[in-house]
Design goal:
Blueprint (H helix, E strand, L loop, with lengths): L27 H24 L2 H5 L7 H16 L2 E8 L14 E10 L20 E11 L4 E8 L19 E4 L3 E5 L7 H15 L1 H6 L7 E6 L1 H6 L11 E7 L2 E7 L6 H15 L14 H13 L10 H10 L17 H22 L1 H13 L4 H9 L3 H15 L3
Parallel strand pairs: 6-7, 7-9
Antiparallel strand pairs: 1-2, 2-3, 3-4, 5-6, 8-9
Helix pairs in contact: 4-7, 7-8, 8-10, 9-10, 10-11, 10-13, 11-12
Bound molecules: zinc ion.
Length: 420
């Protein structure tokens, strides 16, 4: 499964009205000073996080709020374990919040962040409203004035209604993850999944060793590390808004063009290494590309799933795989295929539809690999998916053949492969 869950919503964020009750008009000058102090506290908090300074990270948090203190302590532990390399707040309010004694104004922030990426770039004007290389998420922080501590402190933190992501919470926003690290992977387990961590790290390392080489084949940058979240059934239904539903065992999602992360549902499949080869196949072939819009209607889904199945199979043909029976059944019951590019799966696709789609897509990719070689197959993939050009120019360039001829030959091969 491949879901690019990030939407580019250029939603402006106005200043919210202050809560009801008594209002005092703050002195504008003082308000601006206070606003500058609040911004500086959040910037310093991020710098403390990157420096591993927990006391500095906790400094702006209201110590009288035990739940909030625990939330921030957990977040510090998880973000450090995920090897956070950027945590920069951008203040999205066009005018400063109203600051008055006795009130806790909402401060709206876009937080730019990176995990395990030493070269994570600072956001630029060009990438700000596009699906750029630096991930971000939106948060709302309340700052209340605490006279005892002599200044403004964080008194609440909330998820906003609108966000760049299709669904929240993001997996790492869960307060109770347990994180383990390998050479090429970071694996974070939801509660109840911790005992799987040693096996999962070993499986992820094996999968990474198998998938890393495709970066070279694509001429693409290698993902710095593969990041995996182990979800129980409860987290599967909530993380990233509950995508992609009950008929899937895992998915790769895009936090940015340079940070694809993987979620697996541990109850769905036993062969974790194979499942991770498939999802890492999505990560390695997508890393460094913008696939914005693909979550709405991915015209290349047959190719992205076919290539992920091909990578998962690691040289074994689709005819030896578990989806072949569903593919055969579908082909026998449907009008003859006219193009290799199947219609993208509907959101409510049944398990049988999904299996048939994966099986036929895998057969199509196998055909191209057999006829033109693996190197040319990946050149074709790079042109279609990474460069967003259609299969017609890609086929001319990578295979030296007209796409219509390639499709005709591969459709014949597919029917023959399933004995029809
Ligand atoms: Zn997939």
């Amino acid at each position: 499964m491949s879901l690019a869950l990030t939407l580019t919503l250029a939603a402006g964020c106005g200043t919210p009205p202050p809560p009801g009750g008594h209002r005092r008009s703050p002195s504008p000058a003082q308000s601006n000073d206070d606003w500058a102090i609040i911004q500086q506290k959040l910037i310093a908090q991020g710098q403390a996080l990157l420096a591993g300074d927990e006391a500095g990270w906790m400094a702006p948090v209201d110590p009288g709020n035990a739940a909030l203190v625990e939330h921030y302590r957990n977040l510090f532990r998880i973000l450090r374990a995920l090897q956070v390399t950027r945590w920069d707040p951008e203040f999205t309010m066009s005018i400063p919040p109203i600051l008055a004694h006795g009130q806790a104004p909402n401060v709206h922030i876009d937080m730019w962040y990176c995990f395990a990426n030493a070269t994570c770039p600072a956001p630029t004007k060009e990438t700000r409203y596009l699906h750029g290389p630096t991930p971000r998420f939106r948060m709302v922080v309340d700052f209340g004035l605490r006279v005892s501590s002599g200044g403004y402190l964080i008194t609440a933190v909330k998820q906003p209604k609108g966000d760049h992501h299709a669904g929240r919470p993001l997996p790492w926003e869960s307060a109770d993850l347990t994180v383990a690290t390998g050479d090429r992977v970071i694996v974070a387990a939801a509660p109840g999944q911790q005992e799987r961590l040693p096996v999962a790290v070993a499986a992820a390392e094996r999968a990474a060793a198998a998938t890393d080489r495709y970066s070279t084949l694509l001429g693409a940058p290698r993902p710095p590390r593969y990041i995996v979240y182990l979800a129980g059934d409860r987290e599967w239904r909530t993380w990233n808004g509950g995508s992609p539903g009950a008929n899937y065992a895992g998915y790769a999602y895009s936090a940015s063009s340079h940070q694809y992360e993987v979620v697996v549902r541990t109850s769905a499949r036993n062969d974790l290494t194979a499942l991770l080869r498939h999802e890492f196949g999505h990560v390695v072939t997508s890393h460094g590309t913008t696939r914005a819009g693909a979550e709405i209607y991915d015209v290349n889904q047959w190719l992205t799933e076919g290539i992920a199945e091909y990578i998962e199979a690691g040289g074994r043909p689709a005819t030896a795989g578990p989806t072949i029976a569903a593919a055969r059944q579908y082909l026998r019951a449907s009008p003859r295929m006219r193009t290799l590019g199947l219609e993208p799966l509907p959101r409510n696709a049944t398990a049988t539809q999904v299996a048939a789609f994966y099986g036929i897509s895998h057969l199509a990719v196998d055909c191209m690999a057999r006829r033109f070689g693996e190197r040319n197959l990946f050149a074709f993939f790079a042109t279609v998916v990474r460069e967003s050009q259609g299969p017609f120019p890609a086929s001319e360039r990578a295979y030296g053949q007209d796409w219509e001829d390639v499709q005709r030959a591969c459709i014949t091969d597919i029917y023959r492969a399933v004995g029809l």
